[in-house]
Design a protein that fits this description.
The protein is mainly α. It has 10 helices and no strands.
Length: 318
Amino acid sequence: MIFSILEHILTHISLSVVSIVITIRLIILLVNEIVGLYDSSEKGIITTFICITGLLVTRWIYSKHLPLSDLYESLIFLSWSLSIIHMVPYFKKNKNHLNAITAPIVIFTQGFATSGFLTEMHQSVILVPALQSHWLMMHVSMMVLGYAALLCGSLLSVALIVITFRKVIRNFEKSNNESFSFGEIQYINEKNNVLWNTSFISSKNYYMSQFIQQLDHWSYRIISLGFIFLTIGILSGAVWANEAWGSYWNWDPKETWAFITWTVFAIYLHIRTNKDLEGVNSAIVASMGFLIIWICYFGVNLLGIGLHSYGAFTLTSN
């Protein structure tokens, strides 16, 4: 009873704190940076991480097994993983607004986990035979950590595309307002080709260019880390499947979508090896991966089919 109450309190505290943090981050993003608000948001992220950590530990002690056996527990662990990634920029000396982009995912996962949709899963139950294995910690933790990193990295790529697209539209509208002939435009382009970068990054464009470079840099690094976790998770899952079901790969819906996810981000990393395709081109592939991850993570749970259907949930009805 005590553990259940403590779990309920920690869950709602973490959700409330994250909601306040995203509000503060948006204020900092839209207005000039305020040191007090930035420090408050930093403390809020740390508080959220502590609450989610306490929630996982409480759940572990109460259920007597690693809290990764169903959708509710995996969502809490996903929120914990996202919180770690969300805190990384705070350890950097320079302040940036990457946290304002990743924070909504933390709110969504925590909000969905604490909503009425998963009420029946809040109570811990005995593990099904398929999950009573030492591979549970290795496989599921690596997969969820991989999902968290890939979600954050691909979301940064989505932001990169949006900002770049808006900048292109703004430059296009500005060029239409100029009354130049085709010959004059061609002459200017040829003469000022060397000075283009200098004029482009002047004033506000300098800050925007720096921010886009940060998005591209961090997106690549986080996705690379997530890809490693996902690869380890798939390999350990194959070994576990051979022990539990007698086959390394069964083309189960979950396995199939995990393979599709791995393929998409493998393509992304391959594209990144070409310097000419960095930036928007690779970000488009990562943006596709953002949607595929959610299909992989929630798809089987919504359908409730396949060998991984133990994590499925049913909507509560009055």
